[in-house]
Amino acid sequence: MLTIPEADVADLGSIVAAALAHSPAARALLADLEREQHIPETAVRDYYDRNRDRYLTPEALRRGVDPFDEPAPSDIHPYEHVRTGIAQELRQAAARRAFFDWLDEARADVEYAEGHEHPGDPTHQDHEHRH
To answer: Are 10 and 30 spatial neighbours (Cβ–Cβ below 8 Å)?
Structure first.
């Protein structure tokens, strides 16, 4: 069985993590969705500009440089060095959103058998019950 890293479970949510952990088809769909995502260069650059704190050099971190107080250019990894990683992160995030939308649509008409409703399903009269 494929294990999903703990951080991914927190990011994905339990239903999505379970689908990806147990379904090769779900993993293939997510991979296809990721390949389909086009992230404009302006979005990548904007992310870099708005999140400079993520790109401090190790030396700047050791010195306690405040990324929000105009750090020196040498304290931040150059855009060209981190651009590919940022684009990948944004592509992955867009693919996950598309996967969440697909999964929500796919399970929209699902009716759970009596007694097997999902504990968080707000359509169930006792949506706070536990299994």
So the answer is: no
Q: What φ, ψ does residue 18 adopt, rounded to 5°?
A: -65, -45
- Read off the pTM: 0.72
Phi-psi region at 13: left, alpha or beta (left = phi > 0; alpha = psi -120 to 50): left
Q: What is the pLDDT of residue 104?
A: 83
The predicted model gives 58-70 an average pLDDT of: 90
User: Which residue is it, tokens 């750090």?
Assistant: 71
Residue closest to 3 by CA, chosen among 21, 16, 15 = 21
Q: Is 110 exposed, middle or buried (0-12, 13-18, 19+ CB in 10 A)?
A: exposed
Largest CA distance in the chain: 62
User: Which residue intervals of 1-131 are DSSP H helices?
Assistant: 6-12, 14-22, 24-36, 41-50, 58-63, 79-106
Rg (CA), the chain: 20
